[in-house]
Amino acid sequence: MNFRKAVITILLIIAIVTPGSALLDKKEYPKFLEEPWDHTPITVYIDEKNTPPHYSPSYPATVIKALEYWENGGNGKLSYTPVFEPVNTTDADIYIMWVENMEEVTGAEKGVAGFCRPMIANGRYVHADIVLEVGDYRGFSWQQYGDANMEQLVTHEIGHALGLGHSNDPRDIMYPTYEQRENIDPLLVQTTYPLIIIVILMAIAISGYLSIVWLRYHRKRQKLEHELLKK
Ligand SMILES: [Zn+2]
Predict the structure, then answer these.
(1) Nearest Cα to 37, choosing from 89, 81, 97?
(2) Are strands 114-121 and 124-133 parallel, antiparallel or unpaired?
(3) CA of 215 to the centre of ligand 1 (A)
């Protein structure tokens, strides 16, 4: 039947195209945007006022270290050298804040310790919010993040705010480790959005087609049964 051939062809196209595009992504370093900010310096506001109970006053220093890391070459994957300026106004380019529990406050999935939420307009970042958790459950007990842990977490999130995606290399700061795994990345959704839409539309088309075929077959059989019963 022709429809079967069509369905098989469509499925084959999906099977061939999907891993192919995944391979392409692996070759190039994953980036949301090559150069997300259209100005320099990039202003940063560290929220030291709205802090959760287990916030440590030593955390802002870890942010400064993270900013210096990226200003001094970072992981070598940026095509530009960022310059940051810590400011005291909340309308800064990057807004950094801490929460007691990521799952409770932001509705994030378990195991998510931080996220960067960039806002884009005309292909550029116009603002980025970085939200960080102050601790997590290790085994049965809750433990506050130490400065070394926080510095890693902040460095990773600032990497996102500079346009970088996740690395496949476990030694890379942009590799999503347990503490750095995030699910809230609107940009990630945006880049895979067309593919998801295509797959959904194809699935709807295929299931619609199959149900029409089944209905026709069903009616044909009913008709045949009627005729047989008459005899
Ligand atoms: Zn990440």
Answers:
(1) 81
(2) antiparallel
(3) 48
Q: How far is ligand 1, taken at its centre, from the CA of residue 185, in Å?
A: 8
Ligand 1 center from residue 153 Cα (angstroms): 9
- For residue range 98-145, what is the model confidence (pLDDT) as tens digits? 999 887 777 777 777 888 989 988 889 999 999 999 988 777 788 899
Residues 74 and 19 in one domain: no
Same domain (yes/no): 171, 59: yes
Ligand 1 centre distance from Cα of residue 177 (Å):
8
Residue 184 alpha carbon to ligand 1 centre in Å: 9
Same domain, 110 and 127: yes
Structural domain containing residue 108: 33-184
Reported pTM? 0.67
114-126 burial: b if 16+ Cβ within 10 Å, else e: bbbbbebeeeebe
